[in-house]
Structure formats: structure tokens, C-alpha cells
Write a structure and sequence with these properties.
5-stranded antiparallel beta sheet
């Protein structure tokens, strides 16, 4: 009986230790979001960004929804940090559930390079808003919309 009691006590302490470590890991998670609406070609579009990191960057998503430019048009997503623009990816406009959307999804678990993002960094969507559209937009293309991460 004494052995069972000691074993139960050790097991309980071990469970509490593991739970405490797990909650510390969750406390270290950083999540930043960016969101901005703007009327482009008579339709209100929305730019959204979502960044997550634990001990290193884990994920960065950029979505431009309800964009009034043709399906298949490429849109460059850039990150402005300390005055320097970096291309994070190019997404092509596609219809998703009847809504035109351009998206870039970066995930470390997929082997993608996910840059560090800090509060105040700015997500930008770049492409001309009228034809002729840029077939290879980059961070020097016309800005459609931008939003700061918070």
C-alpha cells in the first residue's frame, strides 16, 4: 500500500511538471495580425496577415480578399521592415467560394522560409489596379493596399 501511494504521488508530481512546462511553451507563442480594407475598382477589398512564432517563426499567411481584378492575375505580397521591402511571395487571384482571393501561405513545417515579423512591420499587396496588369509583380509594383502588424 505504501509503494502504491508513493508511486501515485510521484506520478502526480510528474504530470503537474509536464503540464507546467506545456503552459510555459504556450505562453511563449507570439501572434501578430494585420488587417485593412480599401475600395479598389469600386469594390471593398480586404488585406489580412497572420504571423505566428514559438521559439522561431512558424507561419506567415497573407490574403487579399474580394479583389476586383481578373482571376489568374498575380499579386505580390511584400513585407516592409525598417524601410526595406522584402517579397514574401506571389499569389494568383482565384475564385474561392465565389470570392476572388490572392493568397500566400508560408509554413516552417512545409519547409518554407518564414521571416521574423515584429509589431509595426507592414504587409503590402502590390499589382496595378487596372489593365495592363504586371505579369511579374514585385515590391516595386504599384501598391494596392497595406496594413501594419499588431
Amino acid at each position: 500500500m505504501n509503494f502504491k501511494m508513493r508511486f501515485a504521488t510521484v506520478a502526480a508530481v510528474l504530470v503537474l511538471t509536464v503540464m507546467g512546462s506545456a503552459s510555459e511553451m504556450w505562453a511563449q507563442q507570439v501572434r501578430l495580425t494585420a488587417c485593412k480594407n480599401r475600395v479598389i475598382n469600386g469594390i471593398e477589398a480586404q488585406l489580412r496577415g497572420d504571423y505566428r512564432e514559438r521559439t522561431s517563426p512558424v507561419r506567415l499567411n497573407a490574403d487579399l480578399e474580394n479583389i476586383n481584378i481578373p482571376v489568374g492575375t498575380p499579386v505580390a505580397f511584400c513585407l516592409l521592415q525598417n524601410g526595406v521591402k522584402t517579397l514574401i511571395g506571389v499569389g494568383k487571384v482565384a475564385m474561392i467560394g465565389g470570392v476572388p482571393v490572392a493568397t500566400v501561405d508560408l509554413a516552417a513545417t512545409d519547409g518554407d522560409f518564414v521571416p521574423n515579423v515584429n509589431a509595426g512591420d507592414v504587409l503590402q499587396a502590390r499589382q496595378r489596379n487596372v489593365a495592363p496588369f504586371n505579369p511579374n509583380p514585385g515590391c516595386g509594383a504599384a501598391m494596392l493596399i497595406s496594413a501594419a502588424f499588431q
